């Protein structure tokens, strides 16, 4: 029997606007717009049914600095459910929902404890009588670029010490802003029993072989095609000699991708049936799925079938009727690799590859984007591109070049 059990979650991004999905059918768009709430409700369901000692939320509860009233009201409703179940909640606010914004605040029930803008310790005694010390701080403003880890100091006596921090591990993902940076070594020095992190949306265990676990639980609902795969929360069982973790998937919408091998297919009809079959493999009884499809090995496909991939007819056929399914699999895009079937003269191919390689150099990349980022009007609205985005853009550009060559050959 473990001595302490709690749920660690972060990056709820409640009421995410899901920009750019307005083209989807209304039923599916509604499901998506409700998905951050649906996922959080499931987390609370789990906290109540497991009778956990407490719930930790390590920042970015709200998506927008304005903390929509709707998001606050719905969060409050869930906090009240936890209050009625006798479960305390410890919260810190991150870069998305920092304390410096100008919003109307809805008061939370008394089981909710929010960390202030300086690192502080909150003491808590479980029903079994164990003393837990929790440490953390909320972002006073959006951009917290300085190190805050040095302000954490373990205070005895307590049975368990848990650090909460919303920030970026040094050398971590370039997809996230380098806020409140820290190294794994710096966290270990603090001699906590567990580090409940937030900020990075992909689940990561920075330290797990031996005491203490250092964990990014990831966000609770993928918000775009870059946030694929299982999303939810972590259930932590902590005792003086052992830590065990389990991930609970709670996301209502799953972003996914699939690659379809068309090497044995010739006709459009067979291609359609194969895609449908693969879609049904992706179908889940508890989630809606948004699917990116790539068709590979299209050498044997009839020209007409390839044409129907390119002009969107296949996509339309695959989407047909899915908007009425509770467990929908909505195909967002269908791509095929023309490159595979392209026969190019070797010297030209070499030249083409060379040009593409040159484009991947930082310098030429920046040059290509100079007009956009150099423009005082548009640059205001642009965030620095991440490595992941750069890579994607280059892959798309490469594909475009091959397609243009193909259509002219
Ligand atoms: Mn976040």
UniProtKB/TrEMBL annotation:
Query: Could you tell me which InterPro entries the record lists for this protein?
Result: Calcineurin-like_PHP (IPR004843), DNA_Repair-Maintenance_Comp (IPR050535), Metallo-depent_PP-like (IPR029052), Mre11_N (IPR041796), Pesterase_YhaO (IPR014576)
State the Gene Ontology terms under molecular function: hydrolase activity
Classification via SUPFAM superfamilies: Metallo-dependent phosphatases
- The answer, when asked if Ribonucleoprotein is one of the entry's keywords, is no
Q: Which residues form the Calcineurin-like phosphoesterase domain?
A: 5-202
* Organism domain of life: Bacteria
Q: What keywords are annotated for this sequence in UniProt?
A: Hydrolase
Q: Which PANTHER family does this UniProt record tie to the protein?
A: COMPONENT OF ATP-DEPENDENT DSDNA EXONUCLEASE, PHOSPHOESTERASE
What protein does this entry describe?
Metallophosphoesterase
